[in-house]
Amino acid sequence: MPMLGLGTWQNDDPETCAASIETALEMGYRHVDTAQAYGNEEAVGDGIAAADVPREEVFLATKVRNSNLAREDVIETTEESLDKLGVDAVDVLYVHWPAGAYDAEGTLAAFDDLYDQGKIHNVGVSNFEPSHVEEAMDHLDAPLFANQVEMHPFLPQTDLRAHAEEHGYELVAYSPLARGGVFDSDVLTDIAADHDASAAQVSLAWLREKGVTAIPKATGRDHLADNFESLGLPLSDGEIDRIDGIDRTDRTINPDFGPDAWN
Q1: How far apart are CA 114 and CA 22, in angstroms?
Q2: What does the pLDDT look like over 91-135, one tens digit per residue?
Q3: CA-CA distance, 65 to 102, in Å (whole number)?
Q4: N or C: which end of the chain has fewer CB within 10 A?
Q5: Which residues are designated catalytic?
Q6: Which helix (H) or strand (E) holds 171?
Q7: Cα 184 to the chain's mean position, in Å?
């Protein structure tokens, strides 16, 4: 899984979405993340098809909507997602939240079925706490590949990072720029100035140093390029320590149906 991807949440104008995917892929991105709930899978597929990049080079992920997590609905709606995306399989399919129609036994049995059929190459979960992850692992026959969660310098997910390392799954960070909050941090902007970089690049580089894949959302060429250039930004141990020292736990995405442990 490429350690920098393109998130597409709220990128719901079909033409803009497709164009941003095409631009990103031709710029060098090789990881695209969407979801049934975003309402843009067809546009994402159009962008992938339009780019001069072979499908096998693109790591593509989508997520099953909370209301579609009953076993039969997982199968049916994933088939619909594949059709909208214009692909035979996705590289990872996520349970979007441990909420709604989610039932670990039934939901994950459907994911196992899709995995066995080759329609998904990896099983993922999203917004899971360690207890949810362990329950999922108990029910899955397929390996658990990744947990996608909000993570950035103001929400460092220390416990989840340790849990992921212990149990051998990947962490994927959505909202890695804290919905723009990184630009208001003196620590991040000072480090950015020392590198002639942006605070966004510093946040993405910090995540990479933690072994976490980031999927920032962007549509315009300038923002896409700025985020992509984070791959060439090295951070010193001292700079990482300064970012670690921010010592905040600010969650920007916290719906009522989120895990009880968040509140």
Answers
A1: 28
A2: 999 999 999 999 999 999 999 999 999 999 999 999 999 999 999
A3: 10
A4: C
A5: 38
A6: strand 170-174
A7: 23
